[in-house]
Amino acid sequence: MSKDKHFIGQPIFGQLLNFVDKGDIRRLAKSQQADRYIKKLDGLTHFITMLYAVIGGFESLREVVINLLSNATKLSHLSLNYSAKRSTLADANKRRDSSFFGSIYKMLYQQYASFLSDSHLSKSDMKRLYIMDSTTITLFKEILKGVGRNSKSGKKKGGIKAHTLIKASENTPCLIRYTGAATHDHILLKEINLAQGSIIVFDKGYVDYAAYEQFTDQGVWYVTKLKSNALYSIVQEIDIPDTADNGILIDEIIELRYGKGKELVHTARRIAYWDEQKKKVLVFLTNNTDFEAEMIIEIYRRRWQIELLFKQLKQNFPLKYFLGDNVNAIEIQIWTAMIANLLLMLVRSKVKRQWAFSNMTSLLRGQLMSYINLYSFLNDPEKTWREKNETYKREMQLSLFPN
Description:
alpha+beta; nine-stranded mixed β-sheet; 13 helices; 9 strands; about 35% helix; globular
């Protein structure tokens, strides 16, 4: 083992935990009374155990416990002096409030968000861009009400919806809320509190003209799509410059009426654009009249970034097998997946070699408790093999009877 050029005296999982200040988690547990009436499985031990379960991709509590026991001699590297039994871990997932794990995520986000900024964003306007969307995670038991109509059999799977807000420059959630899948997306708009001059983009599922008007009053610019059945009146047509994209068909100021008696008015800008690739007309809505139409379209295209984040989470931390059958346990597992995603994105940002996130995650998952220098290996995974081959060649050159 000592001949391996990547050997280090700490397992990979222990190196990942170096990003987490254990003292901060203990203080957080104390302030939230997360360890109240707890004898052994305190907040820190619970967090480390769940993080190990999520990154390891385990599908049951029994699998988590057995794998921890098989690495009993290495647990001291993880600040663990206790390996929980299956029933103890199940009780903790049910009783310890999931908000404790949410607070850990927020603490780590505030600490490391600046290291996750995307240097490929060239325009300063993209630095103040926020993207909002939600993703539904299907549950095989109707723990939370599912979305859509009941099937012919009268049965419907449950579901949990993660409402998410990310900064485009960081590509990691800065706000997350969980609800039943049947909850309408626009409820999250009421919790958005952005600085003046910020830009937020979301799809037309968030239609709420009252919230749009509030954004305008706060000096926050929004970009979304206009529903095809929206009722509006045209106030003013905006001249389209000769240098504008040929796909821009209409640029105008409109009034949208809302309220029970339709007595309230929201003034917005409507842009119709022919998308040559999709072969259809896309209609955008915004309260910004300063940006060029092309800029509004480009901002909406950035919304796809959050879809890629959801895909990354679901591919690398499969949320198909939950380690509990209650809402609290499910939320704990989703929060832990968010934390795991943040930590691994942080690792990738510190490695010079370009890794696909899924490839890196799969590699680390298989070697989670191996004594391998995380950064040395990711920067040059072929180093040990290359030096071994060079040594072999030298030995053969000095041999009278090489094989």
